[in-house]
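pls design
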């Protein structure tokens, strides 16, 4: 086993248990890169390793102040405040070492409520612990207003009215007419007796100054609450034998059953808001693909508002009153459909589409009077910037670039192109995917290729700026990504096509995309490496096991390598819904699970392998990954083992991510370029 030790920090940070030859040290090595991609490589590395300098911008209700998530202290995140439009700093809050801001909302013109993810001892990576913070825009009166540490002076100010809550809190709705309160959902911790009694969620009215809370009764087994345009709870979705049933909150503040004959909602229904007469969800009608659905509160009738064949809406713009204004679809490129009754809000969206043609344009926050809008603009080659749209004046002003290095260097990245492919034997199944080309690659000829497999498998690749794909492309490689069966975005039926097929048809789909690229003259058949994280790491190993002559090397990051023990050792099996998913998606036959596990098929891995793992990974524990490395080494295989101390599922710190990515660069150069007839750039 080749071992990269802490002495090669620039490449991979690791502490291993078996001595071996270290990965070759030196500067980051480029593949057969163009001049443009070589110029982009250092910036691409910085973008992929460090994450954005500004994220999650929100505008205050009066349109006079901007909040933004920014890098904080000790690897964590902070929330910074600026005046508009001149961006003069007002104040900030750092939420703690290695903590992350999951979401935040302006409750008034002066105060913000924040959801925080924290590092916990057993996890090693930020997880949602249900903590809610609040802070004024000048940085004052900061503290935890809800959660297990509420009332403690962990941010310098003790919120006197806040009391400990052994539950997860999540923001539901700010109350425009009540600047002191917000609606939150409370879900008891797993050890709380309320969970054993079937009480899943409570609705709370939280005082964002004192932390005091008032319970608003919710029905048993509640999963979601939909808020009406007046800020009052309107609909509750509750667990049923199949999917969800729903109840309506009447003027008497009691919950009443849905109208007689109302159909249940599916188990993937996603609430999207309500108006006086209906509520909206992403759901299915008559077993058709999921779409935006209107459900009449009086009759229970479902009506399709917006749908596209084999596509599920991936975002919905809501008017201030709660009803949808526009729907977004992602294939083949981002598009938005403005709904007929969207009014002034729809006019704003259409004007922005004209102002930024061929770009991904999203309104992420609006002032209370809908005059000012914070707009996110990005593309496949641009990692994104925020603009301020003054609808009354008809002006759009740039605010901030997501990545300062990209803006400063004016580097251009490579384009992404969409493709479709049908796997052999399944002509009616159409898979979507993307190719990312190195910047400046004008000739369309066969190139060394990295197959980048997404995690999940319930996730998807989109036409958007993909930092990891752009980093690999900046090294000179063509990057191929495919949304194999099981990916999201195509509906539940498409996701279920992957059940019991993780090692089979899913890997066939990936190979079908590679073969398509070869047939198109874009993929160099003899120089293909497969690379992925989590489920993508599993796919990387299973693909080289099943198709040993098709891939020259494989990279697995935080991968899942033993299905037979995952339910007992990983955190997915710790929860009831997780156990149900594993039972349905994988089955319970231990022999079959072992036969689909890279660890138990290690003797069939014939190509060089790089395995990267965090020692505190709770999602895919490190034990099977270590065992896989030992098994490959025991039969004389070529394996590099990289263990990152203090990391969970994926790498948290920019230092670790940079080291990992530079190590990947050297590994790919050795196995794709070192054997290629194409000369590498210096």
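designed seq:
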């Amino acid at each position: 086993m080749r071992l990269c030790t802490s002495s090669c920090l620039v490449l991979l940070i690791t502490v291993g248990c078996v001595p071996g030859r270290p990965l070759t040290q030196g500067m980051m090595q480029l593949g057969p890169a163009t001049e443009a991609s070589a110029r982009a490589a250092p910036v691409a590395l910085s973008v992929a390793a460090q994450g954005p300098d500004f994220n999650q911008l929100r505008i205050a209700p009066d349109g006079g102040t901007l909040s933004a998530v920014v890098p904080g202290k000790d690897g964590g995140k902070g929330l910074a405040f600026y005046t508009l439009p001149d961006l003069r700093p007002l104040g900030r809050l750092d939420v703690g070492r290695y903590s992350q801001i999951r979401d935040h909302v302006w409750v008034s013109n002066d105060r913000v409520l924040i959801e925080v993810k924290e590092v916990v001892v057993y996890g090693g990576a930020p997880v949602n612990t249900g903590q809610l913070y609040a802070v004024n825009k000048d940085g004052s009166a900061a503290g935890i207003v809800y959660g297990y540490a509420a009332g403690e002076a962990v941010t310098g100010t003790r919120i006197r009215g806040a009391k400990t809550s052994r539950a997860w809190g999540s923001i539901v709705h700010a109350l425009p007419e009540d600047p002191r309160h917000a609606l939150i959902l409370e879900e008891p911790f797993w050890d709380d007796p309320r969970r054993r009694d079937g009480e899943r969620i409570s609705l709370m009215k939280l005082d964002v100054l004192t932390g005091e809370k008032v319970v608003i009764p919710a029905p048993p087994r509640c999963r979601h609450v939909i808020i009406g345009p007046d800020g009052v709870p309107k609909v509750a979705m509750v667990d049923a034998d199949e999917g969800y049933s729903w109840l309506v909150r009447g003027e008497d503040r009691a919950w009443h059953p849905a109208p007689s004959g109302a159909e249940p909602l599916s188990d993937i229904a996603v609430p999207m808001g309500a108006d006086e007469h209906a509520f909206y969800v992403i759901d299915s009608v008559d077993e058709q693909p999921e779409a935006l659905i209107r459900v009449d509160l009086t009759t229970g009738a479902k009506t399709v508002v917006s749908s596209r064949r084999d596509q599920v809406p991936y975002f919905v713009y809501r008017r201030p009153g709660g009803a949808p204004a526009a729907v977004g679809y992602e294939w083949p490129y981002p598009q938005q459909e403005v709904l007929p009754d969207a009014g002034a809000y729809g006019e704003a969206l259409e004007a922005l589409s004209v102002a930024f043609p061929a770009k991904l344009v999203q309104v992420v926050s609006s002032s209370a009077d809908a005059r000012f809008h914070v707009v996110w603009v990005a593309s496949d080659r641009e990692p994104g910037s925020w603009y301020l749209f003054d609808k009354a004046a008809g002006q759009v002003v740039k605010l901030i670039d997501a990545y300062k290095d990209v803006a400063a260097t004016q580097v251009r990245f490579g384009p992404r192109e969409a493709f479709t492919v049908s796997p052999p034997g399944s002509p009616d199944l159409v898979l979507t995917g993307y190719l990312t080309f190195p910047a400046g690659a004008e000739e369309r000829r066969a190139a060394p290729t990295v197959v980048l497999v997404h995690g999940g498998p319930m996730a998807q690749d989109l036409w958007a700026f993909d930092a990891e794909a752009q980093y690999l492309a900046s090294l000179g490689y063509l990057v191929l990504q495919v949304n194999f069966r099981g990916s999201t975005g195509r509906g539940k039926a498409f996701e279920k096509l992957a059940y019991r097929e993780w090692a089979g048809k899913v890997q066939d789909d990936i190979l079908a995309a590679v073969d398509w690229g070869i047939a198109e003259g874009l993929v160099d058949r003899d120089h293909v490496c497969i690379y992925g994280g989590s489920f993508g790491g599993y796919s990387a190993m299973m693909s080289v096991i099943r198709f040993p002559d098709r891939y020259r090397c494989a990279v697995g990051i935080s991968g899942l390598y033993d299905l037979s023990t995952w339910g007992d050792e990983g955190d997915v099996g710790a929860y009831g819904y997780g156990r149900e998913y594993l039972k349905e998606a994988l089955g319970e036959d231990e022999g079959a699970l072992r036969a689909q596990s890279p660890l138990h098929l290690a003797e069939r891995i014939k190509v060089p392998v790089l395995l990267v793992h965090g020692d505190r990974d709770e999602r895919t524990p490190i034990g099977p990954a270590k065992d896989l490395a030992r098994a490959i080494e025991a039969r004389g295989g070529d394996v590099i083992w990289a263990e990152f101390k203090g990391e969970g599922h994926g790498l948290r710190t920019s230092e670790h991510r940079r080291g990992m990515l530079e190590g990947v660069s050297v590994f790919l150069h050795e196995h794709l370029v070192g054997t290629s007839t194409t000369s590498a750039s210096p």
